[in-house]
Structures are given as C-alpha cells and as structure tokens.
C-alpha cells in the first residue's frame, strides 16, 4: 500500500527543503513563532513558493539556546513581559555600547518603579544610584555594566 500526502503545508515543506543547503534546516515564520523561545534561528530572507501568493519568510535553525549558552556568550531570557536576546560574540563595540545604554535605561526605570517614583521624575541622586542597581543587586549591576551574571 502506498500513501501520498498533499496540501499547502507539504508543498511549503518541500520548497523549504529544496531551498536549504546540505545540513541546513529552514523553516517558515509560522514554525519559527512556535519554537523561537527554545531554538535560536537566523532570518534568511524571503523565498517565492509556487502555489503561495506571497513571499515566505525563512529562518535557519542555528541550535537550541541551551546548547548555545554553553558554547557562546549568549544571553537568552523569556518571561511574561520580558524578552532578552544578546549574542555577545556577534556584537560590535558600538552594538555592546548601545545595548548597555538600553539596559541601563531599563534598569533605571525598574528601580524607579521599585522606589515608587515615576521614571521621568527621578532626581540626579536617584538616577545615579539606579545605575548601580537595587540594594544587594550585584548581579543586576554587573549585567548593566556589560558583565555576565558571575561578574566576569
């Protein structure tokens, strides 16, 4: 007995497989959206697929975040209301400086909320102490200074 599967999903899977190089795994956005919290992927652009009226965004699988964290300086954190992805090995000095500035601003705003003030109304002393992090927050302060959770 022979079986044949058909449908748009099968068509797309076949086209993605054909567009991939040997050893590479490509997926569409729909699949990426379901796995992006566990698997690191890189966007590879769009491809035209016969039978689909619009270009399909493709993503190449790199590895699981668990494996990457051990091999590379990668910070991946997903929580309700928080998403952070930093690939320190891939960042230029300018990228790291910009990321540090964004993280300092986020830390300032979080500390202001903890103190019961509005982020824009902090005085200079409060803003300076917020850059050092909350009391007892050495790990948070180290992260804001571009160091890892262990302070290195």
Q: Which class do the helix and strand fractions yield?
A: alpha+beta
**How far apart lie the N and C ends?**
61 Å
The radius of gyration over CA amounts to: 22 Å
Uncertain runs are 121-152
Give the strand order of the largest sheet, numbering strands 1, 2, ... along the chain: 1-3-2
Oligomer: single chain
Q: How would you characterize the largest beta sheet?
A: 3 strands, antiparallel
What percentage of residues falls in helices of 4 or more residues? Answer: 40-55%
Q: How does this structure look, described?
A:
The chain has 152 residues and is α+β, with helices and mostly antiparallel strands. The chain has helices at residues 8-19, 29-35, 65-71, 93-115, 124-131, 138-144, and strands at residues 26-28, 39-47, 56-64, 74-79, 82-87. The strands form two sheets. A three-stranded antiparallel sheet has the order 1-3-2. The protein has a two-stranded antiparallel sheet with strand order 4-5. A hairpin with a 2-residue loop joins β4 (74-79) and β5 (82-87). α4 crosses α5. The N and C termini lie far apart (61 Å).
Key descriptive features of the protein:
three-stranded antiparallel beta sheet; disordered C terminus; 152 residues; single chain; two-stranded antiparallel ribbon; 42% helix; alpha+beta
Q: How would the blueprint of this fold be written?
A:
Layout lengths: L7 H12 L6 E3 H7 L3 E9 L8 E9 H7 L2 E6 L2 E6 L5 H23 L8 H8 L6 H7 L8
Antiparallel strand pairs: 1-3, 2-3, 4-5
Helix pairs in contact: 4-5
Structure in a nutshell:
This protein has helices spanning 8-19, 29-35, 65-71, 93-115, 124-131, 138-144, and strands at residues 26-28, 39-47, 56-64, 74-79, 82-87.
